Amino acid sequence: MPSKLDSLNRWVDDVAKKTRPDRVHWCDGSDAEYRQLVDGMLKTDELIELNQKTHPRCYLHRSDPKDVARVEKLTVICTRNKDDAGPNNNWMDPAEANAKIDALFDGCMQGRTMYVIPYCMGPLGSPLSRCGVEITDSPYVAANMRIMTRMGTAALERIEREGRFIKAQHSIGQLDPERRWIMHFPEELTIKSFGSGYGGNALLGKKCHALRIGSWQARSEGWLAEHMLIVGIENPKHEIHYIAAAFPSSCGKTNLAMLIPPEGYRREGWKIWTVGDDICWMRPGKDGRLYAINPEAGYFGVAPGTSNKTNPNALAMLQRDTIFTNVAVTDDNQPWWEGLDDRKPAKDWQGRDYDPANGPAAHPNSRFTVRANQCPSWSPEAENDLGVPIDAIIFGGRRASRVPLVFEARDWTHGVLVGASMASETTAAATGKVGVIRRDPMAMKPFCGYNYGDYFAHWLSFDQPDAKLPKVFHVNWFRKGKDGKFLWPGFGDNMRVLEWMLKRVAGEVDAIETPIGNLPRVDDLNLEGLRLDDAAIDELFRVDNTEWRSEQADIGEYLAGYGSHLPDRLKAEHQRIADALDAEAEPAAAPARAAAAS
Ligand code: OXD
Ligand code: MN
Fold this sequence. Notes:
By secondary structure, this protein is of the alpha/beta class.
């Protein structure tokens, strides 16, 4: 009788025939196998042992210096119809793309072991989870996949039961930036990545599967695959409310997911539970609410800036069983990065004696890979097959000016527009210039596997009569004063903003209506214990009409780029806000203009 694994076996054979590895190893996901992978890499210096007294079973990987971040310009979506990928993606014809990348795969694994990694994104028994199989010639990728996903025998059993999986084919090739591609074939549920060993380019369960292919699958199956953390907030009555939040890479998702509330909150009994720090899959439940799972089982977090002040929970979890990539080390071989503490690094991320003239000691996109349940705030609900119900969705970006600390969308349509209008300063998580403002709808710009116009329509489609959708908010932790310093303390104090959101969800406080959305009354925000003067508070919540009319015009121009794919409902919502801003600016002229238009 044909087994449901036949198609998997056939594919593995085909890839092996093409790539010609010396050995094929099917990963079982066991501890012993992980140990063997690590021991093998210690022998070849792909891993370096860190101080085992202070950091048991922690290792350092130094990547090729030309392979340190996701490469968006080499990341492509290959659909038969170019329009399906949309202007938000690089596109290539599938036949041309397959020919290009298959030529690179030809014989590329000679002298190497080919690892076959069955994995499950999400709890093994969850109907929301989806499986994949990654083939790679990198033991570093295999070890990281073990941490980041439910990998091995149990995943293979689910694949055998279901008979479906995403095919994810990877080789580090020669790590040559000129021979590098990260290709997605959503119609074939296939990923092919060549020439990079780095994070999102190589751990194919993460961005490639869980977001790019995931968003495509989500659209056809009626759910959402999002670049969002999931956090549970327990109040003094021991009720837990869950919030999902989308920020672009390196804008504090991990910190918010693991936040420790300020002292006063802790005394009252508030507590934070971490369900996920990067990716969220959500689907409407029978009761009309959105239920979310974190498809990942680990964190691949940005190290620089992580400290006892910014994220004590993360620091605690990084004391053991962690793979560090491109961090610096101290003279007693402990991992170190900028922002950690006052110690002096001895070697930089490339293994050179540290010299400030060479730039930061740790690469700005240096990372840690660690099992999710090592985090002290880890929520056992992360294993709940049914997911957790979401009460609020937050969108946010890194904006030095213009955008207030927090505002609330007035309804779902407005919330979708707020997400679609997001913009942020670029960071080191991807190659390219840092600090440039770019539109990054729902923080999915590098990750949405299809036309953004269709994606916005998909978001709008959740607005059904029986739906009980979350409230939508926008935050900006990064507004600066005239002196160039951040106005808001951020980190643990973000709890104050979360509490206001939950009060809004419960209908306990009202808000100030403005054209861009509802802002808090300052008295409804708990600012006790913060040294914020009145001028800082005014600036944090200032909505400047002239600036926002210009923002709205810019958003309009950006959205118009999606042409006929842009839903009319979103266009109308954009117009409503533009009109409200105009009316606020010229109250007397606005009615006359409206009458002339009708
Ligand atoms: C990540 C990213 O690695 O967003 O999570 O770049
Ligand atoms: Mn991310």
